[in-house]
Amino acid sequence: MAMLDVTDLDAGYGDLQILHGVDLEVAEDEYVVIVGPNGAGKSTAMKSVFGLTTYMGGTVEFKGGDITGRSPDEIIHEGIGYVPQNDNVFPSLTVRENLEMGAYILDEVPEAALESVFDQFPVLRERQDQKAGSMSGGQQQMVAMGRALMLDPDLLLLDEPSAGLAPDLVDEMFDHVNAINASGTAVLVVEQNAKEALRRCDRGYVLVQGSNRYEDAGEVLLNDDEVRQQFLGG
Amino acid sequence: MSDTTAEPTGSLTSESPDRPTDDVELAVDGLVKRFGGITAVDGATFEVESGSMTGLIGPNGAGKSTTFNCITGIHEPDAGTVTFQGEDITGIRPYQCAEYGLVRTFQIAREMANMTVLENLMLPAKRQRGEALWRSVLPVTRREVVREERELLERVWDSLEFFEIQHLAEEKAGTLSGGQRKLLELARALMTDPEMLLLDEPFAGVNPTLEKKLLEHVHDLREEGYTFLIVEHDMDLIMENCERVIVMHQGSVLAEGAPGAITSNERVIEAYLGGEV
Amino acid sequence: IGDEGAVEGGGPAVLNIIGYPESGIQIFRDFYADFDTGTEIIVPDGLQDGDLPDEVGNDMTNVTGTAPASQGPHEDAFAELYEDEYGESPGVFTSHTFDAVAVCTLANVAAGENDGQTIRDQMRRVANPGGDEYGPGELQEAAEAAAAGDEITYQGASSAVDFDDVGDPAEAAYDVWGFSDGDIETVDTITFEGDGPGGEMADESPGGTGRDVMVAMLLPETGDLGELGTPMIDAGRLAIQRMEGVDLTFDLQVEDTETDEDTTLSNGGALIDAGYPAIVGAASSGNSVPLVGETSSAGVVQCSPASTALSLSNVEDDGYFFRTAPSDLLQGQVMAEVSANRLEADQVATLYVNNDYGQQLSEQYVESFENDQDGEALNEVSFEPGQGTYTGELESALAE
Amino acid sequence: MSTVDEAVDRGRSLSSEQLLLLVVGIGAVALLGDLILGLASGTYSISRVARYVTEGILYGLIIGLAGIGLSMTYSILNFANFAHGDYVTTGAFFGWGVTYLVAGWGVASVGPLVLVAPQREVSGAQLDVAITATPIAVLAGLLVAGVATALFVLLIDRFAFKPVRGSGGIPLLITSVGVAFALRYVLVFVYSSSTRGTTASVPSVDFLLVDGYVSIGAHDATLIVAAVTLMLGVHFLLQRTKLGKAMRAMSDNRDLALVTGIPTERVIRWTWMIGGGLAGTAGYLMVLWTGTIDWQFGWLLLLLIFAAVILGGIGSIYGAIFGGLVIGVGMHMSMIWLPGGDFTTITAFLLMILVLLIRPSGLFGGKTTA
Amino acid sequence: MSANTTANATDERTQLEALWERDAVKIFVAFAAIYLVYAAIGLALGYSLDGIVNTLRRMTYLIAVYGMVTLALNLHWGYTGLFNIGVAGFMAIGLYVTMMLAKPVDPTGAAQYPGLGLPMPIAIAGGVVAAGLAGLVVAIPALRLRADYFAITTIAFAEIVRLGLTSGMAQQFSVLGAELGTGGGRGLTRNYGDPMNVIFELEAFSSFVDLTNALFGFGPTQARALVYSIVLVLVLIGFYWLIQRTSRSPFGRVLKAIREDEEAAQSLGKNTNRFKIKVFVLGCALMGLAGILWRVRRTGVTPTAFRPHVTFYIWIALIIGGAGSNTGSVLGSGLFVAVLFEGPRYVRRLIEEVITVGDAPNTFAGAVAPLLSANPAPFLRYTFDEFLTLQFVLMGVALVLLMHRRPDGLLGHREETAAAIPLTDRPAAETGAGPRPGGTDSDHGGDSQ
Ligand SMILES: Nc1ncnc2c1ncn2[C@@H]1O[C@H](COP(=O)(O)OP(=O)(O)OP(=O)(O)O)[C@@H](O)[C@H]1O
Ligand SMILES: Nc1ncnc2c1ncn2[C@@H]1O[C@H](COP(=O)(O)OP(=O)(O)OP(=O)(O)O)[C@@H](O)[C@H]1O
Ligand SMILES: CC(C)C[C@H](N)C(=O)O
Ligand SMILES: [Mg+2]
Ligand SMILES: [Mg+2]
Fold this sequence. Notes:
The complex is a heteropentamer of chains A (234), B (277), C (400), D (370) and E (449).
Chain A: E1 4-13, E2 16-26, E3 31-35, H1 42-49, E4 54-62, E5 65-66, H2 72-78, E6 80-83, H3 95-102, H4 111-120, H5 122-126, H6 137-149, E7 155-159, H7 167-182, E8 186-190, H8 194-200, E9 203-208, E10 211-217, H9 218-223, H10 225-231
Parallel strand pairs in A: 3-8, 3-9, 6-7, 7-8
Antiparallel strand pairs in A: 1-2, 1-4, 4-5, 9-10
Chain B: E1 24-35, E2 38-49, E3 53-57, H1 64-71, E4 79-84, E5 87-88, H2 94-100, E6 102-104, H3 117-122, H4 133-137, H5 139-162, H6 178-191, E7 196-200, H7 208-223, E8 227-231, H8 235-241, E9 244-249, E10 252-257, H9 259-264, H10 266-273
Parallel strand pairs in B: 3-8, 3-9, 6-7, 7-8
Antiparallel strand pairs in B: 1-2, 1-4, 4-5, 9-10
Chain C: E1 14-18, H1 21-35, E2 40-43, H2 52-56, E3 63-68, H3 75-86, H4 94-111, H5 116-127, E4 132-134, H6 139-147, E5 152-154, E6 171-180, E7 183-193, E8 212-219, H7 226-241, E9 249-256, H8 261-273, E10 278-281, H9 285-298, E11 301-304, E12 321-323, H10 328-342, E13 347-353, H11 356-371, E14 376-383, H12 391-397
Parallel strand pairs in C: 1-2, 1-13, 2-3, 4-5, 8-9, 8-10, 10-11, 11-12, 13-14
Antiparallel strand pairs in C: 3-6, 6-7
Helix pairs in contact in C: 4-5, 4-6, 4-7, 8-9, 10-11
Bound molecules: adenosine-5'-triphosphate (2 copies), leucine and magnesium ion (2 copies).
């Protein structure tokens, strides 16, 4: 039984339908990647899981419960963390405060979680009192990731976490994701760094024009000629 | 206003012998930018050759975007000079910079959300006569303006086709996806008829297939004589496409040279590439 | 005059506060809180409001007032009518309003049609000397006579109601009053003879019965002058009531000015469009002045019962503007005289509301005090209505 | 034209800002010098200047108190709320209704009392309303002014602002103009448009200052105590709870706050309640202090509150307090050189514009502390 | 308008015209409705013919003036995103300067304060220039502020203007030896020639007077007022034309870009400050002109006429019509004036005409108490008595509801294209395919091969 089970989801913005019957599954401990052309609806799919789009049909189930149409702060209680693609830090809060916000729903800031985030991203420890808005693009990405990890979610949704990261950090980021995944958190990632992502994941989806186009193990997709040609740049 | 006086434009020749000395399109010398306690750019010095494609890389927070901002007048540098085509352009206004033919794109796309893609692309063209209020209003001159607009629209459609976004022509730019916005951003920059483009991570978030095609376009443009300075984290991309690479680290230039040389430079490996390449 | 506790020593012995009750409450509160060191205060008509002592929380015995008096031949008759009808004694400008409505209506009756120009020409014919005299109690008879085309002379409650050649009342009287036990008490009345009646008028009145007689009142029910306006409107209604019984239907329309220029103009415009040939209003001079433009250009008679600003005497009006309240030219003199003689001051200051009324009255007062009474005016300070505090203004006004 | 936009452009550059700062500095020093010389030579009366300052501080406290609320809603909900001034008035009416009711129980009928004597049926002086004579009535009124306004503001939010919450600052601002209009005239409808006096006179202490007295009345003191207490209270509330941080997070990025699990609606409610409550108490205190109430005093205060908040920098409660004091004292001090009341408000606005010229985001701008 | 299609150019023109005509039809219908309703109300109230015509004339006058200001504001806000809430201040400057320039040098009679005695056209031009200059003065420091600070600065400026005009210091002063004055709180009285005399002295005008006299029983003053309203309508059309041209041009495109993202526009080589200043000054000058036309023929003016609520009225009109649409601005002004501004007054009259309302309780408590015993009459009477108060409540509620239901206003959703030519079709149609490939077979994302 999948932990996250999206079935035949239709969603969009206002009157504009973007997703047409999208199916996604993420099993416990699984590492799943969504790739696809720009505008395919990848971000929209993620947002829909988190209740941020206009719902038009289908279901989203998490751990067997229906979470379709629930509000984000309820969903976060269920154990899903989400890092949006853009604008994913609070610019006028310090780095530390950003991380603390990640644990807002708890009564107290979990020091251990905070430490482990700092360990994963040492630069954040160094800059913990700097306004997040004045950090570089890549640093902000780290802040955002760190914030989502504060609650130690069961499922982490990452929208293009490697965009804008320096190569060493890209690798590190992928390592982090693997590590997070290895520690028992299921991950659903949208990536344009598709080859690397597919190499590392358990399973991948290719989304095109708001619908599923391919779905298979990462390696399989990676070696599929058609997929390579059309979506992975050859 | 810079603290240091600009070097006379004639004596731009740099001391290091292996740098290209003639045909320098853009020269940055001793650039410094501080934000409160942080020195984001700390004496960055480099040159970009005309008609070249140069990569600007460096770890996150190295000061690449800030350097761009200082060059294009978004920020005023605290020290140092920026020279474009032999003219000192330190501290000029962003619009003047574009008038010089030096145009940048933003790391995070800045589309005019409520304007259609067409309007977005009609906007940048330089020296539009209709931008003078009276010309657009007076009936006699209006005719000229209309003619100009028609010509411009033609160019815009060419550009749309070039970037394969014709089908989005009448969409509001705000409804485009992240990648589409990047395309629009690039297309828009090109509509200014620039001589040099500063691209801040133009391909981040762009699907690889599209990226490949875009790069082909970039190469075509370079053939036509445009100069490119590209910030990018994708090392493969930099390796394959740039003839020179500048590596920034903690606000200053750590190394520069041909891609091959850079990737084997230990300091670069340590600071940026993470020892894997 | 008593300066016990006034360490500053100097400063004016009398402060003339010219304003309206709404801001007056605040001004007096600030005065009594911080500046009450024996200065006498004199106020004009605008602050004649019996509620003031209660609202201010002080018995205000150091305040002396002046106001256009009801000194007409039939003052008492009117007061009686008013008290019978509303159970309280008539306030300031009520008799002037009664007279204004009476004259406008009689002129209309005499004119025989609802036409502004004709009514304008009948105004003096029904008000100024010549013909039988009628008072407030005999309005019905007056209307009958006017309808019959007779020349009549309305003798009012506020004055004899004779218009001079610019449409001002030809004579004026002023009450000198004070607060006592929360009531207004008149202590003296001063009468002035003006230039005497004058001006053009029609030679005959068509008159006639069995028709609609339209007249409108445009007075403040709310705003700065809301407190004074409401009894005025009541008094105006009374005038029409007294004419019931004649073979005429009276159409009296009442609109609010909100003591606001825009509202006055809008509502005034609507009244003009609706065909009212004569408008009684407005109260505040600041509202009456702009309204004159509307009325005179539309050929509608405007008769203000309360606007006392000097500028209204020679405003460009084609003869359409009249008033039953006297110009402040005289009130300034009265106030100066009271200050100098009754209050024995040789140094005074003014604190005036910054509008037509306040500015001109302050000027007149100062001029008269310096020229006629040989005194000295120390400060002239203006204020804007509706402020949170007036300590700064008071401070400046009371400075040496 | 080109010289003109050069001028605008130059406004950006540091040196011209410094130049401006210099000019302003010279101006300030000149005024201060003149003031000191004038005081020393007796041209300016010492006690008079002291009265201006005290008066200014009291006025400033009210502006600052109301300003905190405006600043909070401004930064968290991201719009300039033009109805805030009318919240101030509303609070005053709510509170004074209760004060009248308590003080006048049995003296007059309930209707006029609750409506603060719309036709001047009774007056505060007749009921002997004062912190010294009827402390319970005043404190009850103060409490109700805060609490009832907080709840009332929530109600308004529910019906007016919530439906447009997602659509950005300007639609909200325009909505608030609508709310302001409607609310102000509903107040007229319910409470009438007449001005009335609300308090009896209270004892005061006179301080002799060389050439005259400065007197501090019991209501002045009440105002100081209440305002300072409330300011400290808000300070601790925001420092000690995560509410403060959540508010800032929300003012940065509402969507992100939402996905971070911050209960945004609850934070918004708290923001409104604190902002509205402070506005209401500020209104009540203003009436206690001036002794009169009318339907538009809050509205007339609004632009001054804006000036204070902007001068201090949006989002900073200390900025709002400081801005309030600067505006209050500045307005009164201006009368030393420009006698009479003609220029006090002008001075307030000029002060604000001057500060914006030198520091385009206000004095405390950027350093959000709430 | 003609509709023959031959060459490409005429093709476009007819298209433009067709578009314009659709707007025109909308406006026409709305205004016809307004006028008919008011004529009907006039009839119901028993107005005479000239009363009805006069009512409509007044309406026209107000709509024209509000329309002008709203159009100017649309230029600021709708097109450029400049949140100007100091409109009243610029109107005041235009009018006051004009009056001070036009008033005779030697004041006589009630004309308390002297002026410069300049001829009317020069005085008006002076007023317009002064309003524009005031715009410049505000623009230079204020345009670098963020939008909401800018807004507060403009309203502060407007208040400074109003309070400055009111202050005793400005009452009378001398500039270079010439005596001038604003009259302080007392304001200024008009004692110069009617600016419309140019027209009134025309031969044709006297026959117009005769005509209106014959038709509606108008006197000469009423005929003059009628002509004035007509002139204002013409000016309004001029405003419309000017702003339409301005917005549909490369100039307008830059304005729109500024509204969207100013820094990005700068990076594309647009000197945005210059555009902002130009457009702000232009808009302010137009507001000044509207202010002049609003009151220049009135007896006088006091500073209270320019309190902030005037600005908010204009904003309401703009929002009703829809920011960004010029047609909407005109329509919005019409509806604002007819429904919100003048409407309640007439409704009240109508009610009074039909039923006798009777005495209302004088307090809210008195009105509410009987409700408890299920007697709504006193409450209704009270409500009726407070009709004009409720008018403002209505305005406020209307604004709130508009923002809820139609935040784009009535016509604002139809964004006008910021280009001198329609962008709907690709020019020089070359490929057989239409400009927009069908949705299904198009390459979504433009990246698949
Ligand atoms: N807020 C929105 N309102 C309306 N349309 C939107 C909105 N956000 C996205 N869209 C549209 O939805 C479609 C899918 O967008 P989405 O952001 O999900 O794409 P994506 O797959 O994440 O692309 P990318 O890789 O470029 O980020 C696009 O066509 C886009 O124009
Ligand atoms: N406005 C600002 N205020 C304060 N610090 C800033 C500001 N802008 C940038 N910085 C700091 O300057 C440094 C350089 O930032 P910059 O954005 O130039 O990095 P970058 O090289 O572009 O990084 P990336 O590749 O991650 O985008 C960073 O440490 C950042 O925190
Ligand atoms: C009602 C009165 C107080 C009006 C005052 N006399 C004025 O002219 O404004
Ligand atoms: Mg995406
Ligand atoms: Mg960067």
